[in-house]
């Protein structure tokens, strides 16, 4: 492993590690108030390492949703990672598959952004390891720290922290919605579908979220694909008319 490149990766990932500090801390705290032990909360960050999906899992765990449905929902939420790692594969130096598999586990939205914007023609594997390692370490360590803090809060504050889970979802959603009609439409349609299943009780919580996520994604993509098709056709007609 190229030590110089690895150190550069650590430095490049420092901003991610700092950014993860409050989010991981809050996750650990909420995991405690949800009823997870420090080992369970930390293990989730070690083995899942999925940010928003971990927050979603806390809600499902609190509602007693079947573990298989929690895994399925987490898979659907994180399916974008297939595309991110496939895109990065073109920028990375040639390496054995098992090595690629290790650093691919550490790819998040933030680490992808850092790696994808590198100006180098090919990115060293050691650089990717550096970026992923410091971000991953921050997430895991501060999850445990957050749990310890949560364990020492008074009982009434621990109970009140359950509201913070929904506030966190709003905090994650709102910045993405600014100036992005696609995200707004996706959130609204998913909410309507999930609300329908919630009030009619046709599906359990886990299945309702899973169906709402998939259905809204497919529906929005169909709408935008048709819109782009019409735009192209309109452009061709204008060109012919000219």
Would you write up a description of this structure?
This protein is mainly alpha-helical and 242 residues long. The protein contains twelve helices and no strands. It has helices at residues 3-34, 38-47, 52-62, 67-77, 80-89, 97-105, 109-116, 125-151, 155-160, 162-177, 181-200, 205-241. Helix 1 (3-34) runs parallel beside helix 3. The longest helix is centred in the C-terminal third of the chain and has 37 residues, at 205-241. The protein is flat and about 70 Å long.
> Total strand count, please?
0
Q: Radius of gyration, rounded?
A: 21 Å
Shape: flat
| Element-by-element helix/strand order | HHHHHHHHHHHH
Which regions are unreliable across 5 or more consecutive residues at pLDDT < 50?
A: none
Helix segment tally: 12
Main β-sheet, in a few words? none
What separation lies between the terminal Cα atoms? 59 Å
Strand percentage? under 5%
Helix content: over 70%
Mean pLDDT: 80
State the secondary-structure class.
mainly alpha
Task: Summarize the SSE layout with pairings.
Layout: H1 3-34, H2 38-47, H3 52-62, H4 67-77, H5 80-89, H6 97-105, H7 109-116, H8 125-151, H9 155-160, H10 162-177, H11 181-200, H12 205-241
What is the compact description of this entry?
With 242 residues, the protein is mainly alpha-helical.
Supply database-style keywords.
single chain, 242 residues, mainly alpha, 81% helix, flat
């Amino acid at each position: 492993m190229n030590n110089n490149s690895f150190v550069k990766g650590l430095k490049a990932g420092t901003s991610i590690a700092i950014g993860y500090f409050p989010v991981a801390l809050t996750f650990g705290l909420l995991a405690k108030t949800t009823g997870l032990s420090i080992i369970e909360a930390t293990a989730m960050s070690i083995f899942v390492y999925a940010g928003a999906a971990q927050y979603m899992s806390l809600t499902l765990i609190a509602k007693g949703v079947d573990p298989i449905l929690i895994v399925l929902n987490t898979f659907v939420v994180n399916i974008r990672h297939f595309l991110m790692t496939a895109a990065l594969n073109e920028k990375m130096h040639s390496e054995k598959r098992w090595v690629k598999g290790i650093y691919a586990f550490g790819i998040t939205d933030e680490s992808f952004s850092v790696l994808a914007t590198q100006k180098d023609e090919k990115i060293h594997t050691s650089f990717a390891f550096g970026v992923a390692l410091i971000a991953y370490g921050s997430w895991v360590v501060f999850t445990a720290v957050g749990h310890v803090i949560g364990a020492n809060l008074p009982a009434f504050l621990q109970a009140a922290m359950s509201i913070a889970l929904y506030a966190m979802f709003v905090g994650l959603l709102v910045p993405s919605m600014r100036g992005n009609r696609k995200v707004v439409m996706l959130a609204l349609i998913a909410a309507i579908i999930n609300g329908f299943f919630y009030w009619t009780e046709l599906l359990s919580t886990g299945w309702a979220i899973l169906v709402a996520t998939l259905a809204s994604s497919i529906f929005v993509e169909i709408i935008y694909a048709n819109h782009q098709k019409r735009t192209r056709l309109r452009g061709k007609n204008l060109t012919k008319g000219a």
